Amino acid sequence: AQSVAQPEDQVNVAEGNPLTVKCTYSVSGNPYLFWYVQYPNRGLQFLLKYITGDNLVKGSYGFEAEFNKSQTSFHLKKPSALVSDSALYFCAVRGPNAGNNRKLIWGLGTSLAVNP
Amino acid sequence: DGGITQSPKYLFRKEGQNVTLSCEQNLNHDAMYWYRQDPGQGLRLIYYSQIVNDFQKGDIAEGYSVSREKKESFPLTVTSAQKNPTAFYLCASIASGHYNEQFFGPGTRLTVL
C-alpha cells in the first residue's frame, strides 16, 4: 500500500539555524513528491515538487528538498530559518500508476516552530 | 488574478441541517478536489472530479454530496447524515498534465452548533 510518513509531529528550531522537516514514503515505482505549507486558518501553499532529474529540488521562500531513493525520503530543508517560517508542513506523494485522477497521499503534517 | 475562492470563510450549522460550501476557480483547471482537515489527521479526500458532470467518491464520502455542472464550480453539500461535520474544508484544483501540483483555496471552517 502507498503511504507517506512525517515522523515528527513538531519541530523546534532557533531563528537563523538550519531546519529539516522529514518525510518518508512508500509507493510502487518512481514517486512524484510534493511539499506544501499551511499557515493558521489558511489553505495550503505549494512549496516544491520532485518529478525526475536532479535529486535536490529548490522551491519557494528559500526551501529545498532532497530526494533519496535508497532511503525513500524527501526531507524539506532551509539553511537559515525565519520566525515567519513557523507553520504546518505537509508532504504528499503520488505513485506513477495513480492514473488520471492524480490523487495525492498525504502525510499528517509537521508543525514547525521557529523561535526568535 | 487567477485563483480558487471558497465561501463562506466561516459557517455555522445547526444539527440536522444541510449546508453547501462553495468552491470556484478561474484557473481553467480540469480536476477539482474536496478535502476535510481535522487536527492531527492531515487531509482526507471527500470527493473529486476530473471533468464536468463526472465525480468520484474519495476516502470519506459518506454524508457528503457534490455536483460539477460547470468547469469552474465544484460545490460540496454537507448533509445531516454526516455525523461529525465540524472541520476545516479545503477545495483544490489541478491543471491537466501528469506532473502538476494541486492549488488550494483558502478553506471554509464549518462548525455545527
Tell me what the structure shows.
The complex is a heterodimer of chains A (116) and B (113). Chain A is mainly β. Chain A contains no helices and twelve strands. In chain A, the strands form three sheets. In chain A, strands 2, 5, 6, 10, 11 and 12 form a six-stranded mixed β-sheet that branches. A four-stranded antiparallel β-sheet of chain A has the order 3-9-8-7, with no helix packed on it. A two-stranded antiparallel ribbon of chain A has the order 1-4. With 113 residues, chain B is mostly beta strands. Chain B is built from no helices and eleven strands. Chain B has strands spanning 4-7, 10-13, 19-25, 31-37, 43-51, 54-57, 64-66, 76-78, 87-94, 103-104, 108-112. In chain B, the strands form two sheets. In chain B, strands 2, 4, 5, 6, 9, 10 and 11 form a seven-stranded mixed β-sheet that branches. A four-stranded antiparallel β-sheet of chain B has the order 1-3-8-7, with no helix packed on it. Chain B is globular and about 40 Å long. The termini of chain B are far apart. The mean pLDDT of chain B is 93. Chain A binds chain B through residues 9, 32, 34, 36, 41-46, 49, 51, 90, 100-104, 106-109, and chain B through 4, 6, 31, 33, 40-43, 45, 48, 50, 56, 58, 88, 90, 92, 94, 98-107, 109.
